[in-house]
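Thread: "does anyone have the structure for this chain?"

Original post by V.I.:
We have the sequence but no experimental structure in hand. Need at least a predicted one for the grant figures.
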Amino acid sequence: MGLKTVIAELPLTSSGLTLTTSVCKKITSQLIGAMGKQEDVSVQLEALDILSDMLGRLSGALVGFHSSLLSSLLPQLTSSRMAVRKRSILALGHLVPCCSPALFSQLTGHLLTELAKGPPTSMTRTYIQCLATISRQGGHRVGEHLEKLIPMVVKFTSVEDDELREYCFQAFEAFIRRCPKEMSPHVATVTKLCLKFMTFDPNYNYDDDEEEQEDSMDIEDGLDEESDDEYSDDDDMSWKVRRSSIKCLDALISTRRDLLLSFYSSVCPALLARFKEREENVRADVFAAFSTLLKQTRVGSSHHGHVVTTSDSEPSKEEEPAVTMLKKQVPVIVKVLHRQLKEKSIKSRQGCFCLLTELAHTVLGALEQHIPALIPGIVFSLTDKSTSSTMRIDALTFFHVLLLSHPPQAFQPHMQVLLPPVVACVEDSFYKITSEALLVAQQLVRVMRPQGQTGGFDPKPFVKEVFSVTLKRLKATDIDQEVKERAITCMGHMVCHLGDHLRAELQGVLAIFLERLKNEITRLTAVRTITLISASSLKIDLSSILPEALSVLGSFLRKNQRALKLGTLACLNALVTHHAASIKPAALEPVLSELPALVDESDMHVSQVSVTLMTCMAKACPSSLAKISSSVLPGVFRLVHSPLLQGGVLTAIVDFLQALVLSKTSNLGYSQLLKSLTDPFHSSQADAAVIHRQSYHSVARCVAALSSACPKETPGTVAGLMKEVKSPGSPESARVLALLCLGEVGRTGSLGGSKEVQGVILEAISSTNEEVKTAASCALGSMAVGSLNDYLPFLLKEISSQPRRQYLLLHSLKEVISACPASSLSPHVESIWTLLFQNCECQEEGTRNLVAECLGKLTFVNASQLLPRLKQQLKAGSPLARSTVVTAIKFTIVDHPAPIDSLLKDCIGDFLKTLQDGDINVRRVALVMFNSAAHNKPSLIRGLLATVLPHLYKETQIRKDLIREVEMGPFKHTVDDGLDVRKAAFECMYTLLDSCLEGLDVLQFLDHVEEGLKDHYDIRMLTFLMLARLASLCPAAVLQRLDRLIEPLKATCTTKVKAGSVKQEFEKQEELRRSAMRAVAALLAVPEVERSPSMADFANQIRTNADMASIYQSIQGVEGEGLGPAESMDMS
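Reply from O.Q.:
Generated one for you, tokens below.
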């Protein structure tokens, strides 16, 4: 016992490792001797125990003893004592992760030889159990022996011995989890065996009529205990066979998502049939296996969040086939579980609720037609006196998911039955039950009267019942924090949805909300609740709390708590929008004084919400805003001129400036606002150089917005802008801005087809200044969007007749195609299409890319006609034309659902055939297009992976025929013409990891990653990222290839730059080493990586090398700490 304690306490840190290794080596010989003492079993058992502990912690340090340990342990497997055999198996399990491949083969060979002899059943059990253990512990190593092992194990399942069969299925489970790829040829055999033995119950007859069973439930309830005794006696071990076969099926489902559809055909019905399993523990495993099937289905389905749909609503066009098959099984699932939910077994009911919760998450709205069948089970679990707290919480959790994922109308007819048990749970003494029940009550309030619904259901009979229990919890101060918050939120929903039924009680509730608003612990929840009530369609009267609430809310804007700040701004927004009439100007003072400080580029989201609030004020209470316009506008203008401004913040500022100029309360009118916006662009050239390009576009948008709000001012503004463009004395920044402003004003259609403006723009496009030319092309496109018929023919004519300006004019055309609605573009499609194909073979790649983008975006106008025409162009003789067409397809693939998707899915395979094109550039753009599809719309290419991947992998290989030497003076320089294609291929591989992992053979994928680790700098950087991602996504496969992956990583981490190299070379090598070390850090985080001797050696090398240790620690962001999991590795 003392020795055992000493072993357990020996240190594994780098400082104490030497001592630990030394101690273990000294006592191993004695332990081996003690194992051989057959006459004293207690000594044997203790020696085996200590040996297991040692091997479990320090197997790598005892490599020298592995052979002798194996020789000593194998004879113990034939011991007459079962305890000795079991502990020997345990010790062998700890030995295999770090033993050599030869030793592992020796052990496996020994087990196979012994099994082939046909030993007694008790010995066969031991050997099969040992096989299962070494498979679990040795991982992928067992893969190469499966061809011999599987037939042997299959043979023993036919032996009439329940325990032996259990061990056989445990072995199958270990093989499946550890070597899923190598098990592929045997999946059908194992599945067939599982399906056969999951029903193996020779002592019981299940053929009783189900309906009869259900009717006589009350009688049978009293006999449950007796019947359990009758069929669960010690002689009947068949339940172990059923349980192990079901667990084996669970392993199959969880590791082979690629076989999901076949599982729905074969495994799903079989599992459903076993829901009637009589043994509680086995039934729990049946539910667990079915839940795994649902989880695997959910992995591939694309919905996110809670979306309430009705059962007869249109199904998603891209619904996974597995989801469709699952939907057909829902009535059967509910029918079987309906009966289980009324049983006394708590474990069974918990399994039912977990399974139903998973089902509700997997197929939203799937249970709508079956809610009447589920309600008795929910109510029973909430009201049954013998039900445990955990059971109640599980029932409430499922009920909450059900309410969120199904329409309110499905529950309204059952409110009388559903509400009382939930109310009782709100009053429960256990805070967790109360907390969950409040969440359910909140959803039931929404069910009583959904927002926007009038009539149909009268909530009045139920309001008082919910209100009184919620109020009791709301008033309590000596309760759990979570209950406090949920009581506030639940009451908030009551006021929001049913406030008109509360009348006299309403003001008291609002006063409590005000108190909770002042409390630091509950203030954020109170803020969100007041926001909810403010926006209620019932127009709740908040005048009694508004002045004080506004004062408190104003103080929150000073707090350094971002969530509170954002919540407060949203609350103020709702109050100003819906309750402006009740707000006195003086009450807003505490808020107004805080707003200027919030408009700052350091937090763009807070700025956006603050500006949106000021826009509401400008519309609802303009006099209040007038007081702070002078202090807030400088911040707004700083934002407009910020390089970070874009998207939602810019839109918010545009709306604000329009509201401000229309409110006519600011002491800054149209001309002053215009001057403040444009002044920085009229400074000297030195100042203008620091203005970011984004600022030009932001200011142009704001100028156009002001012009749109004040149409009378537009002619004067346009005249001033044209004068600016034409004036030779104007600084470049002012001319660029004036052109962009003209474009944005023209986008609204305010300019018409003015010949004067056209002349000014054309002259600017011919300018010698690049910035002015680019701005002019952008302006021309924007103006054409506003007046298509006036500008488009002119633009097309210019593209045809002005080859020198063509690139800029194509930019204008791209803007037109991107921004104009399809209906406006339709009449012009043919002329644009013809023009673009006239330029698709241009020698300039930049021009071809522009043509391709225009073609791709133009295809959206009439996809059914234009997509086949693009496909037709693939037959063009010129590689340049083919590359333009393939690039055009890239621009038809967008990251949101589009009508073109179904058409693309039918023909994208034809475009992907260009991966086999003879021209290297066509193959490169085909890879870029494939990458775009994998990233933005993976459903387009998932079904084509089997045919595409071989061509993709082929492009990752270095081709010597594409490497050439170029002489540059006295030096020779190597040029790799295949590098860009390889980079494109590796980029595709990286994208596939996130979007199509289930369609990849990960081991084959790793073969190419391994080659990439030795390639060019750019490719190595990519493969290091891939390796880190794979370590997280597919740890088992990475462990299988670990020894081969470590070598190139080690080579990169230990490479030194040649003396005399330039600074760039040093920086490049340093970045490579850091990236490689990030991959190493990801590998060290993989579970069970400590079992790899080569990884342990490398981790030790990093620890002892100051340079590498420094890089590792800087990556981890922790100075002076060890190597995480590697710290506990065996560093012999």
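V.I.: this helps a lot. The mean pLDDT is 86.
O.Q.: and The chain is about 70% helix and 0% strand.
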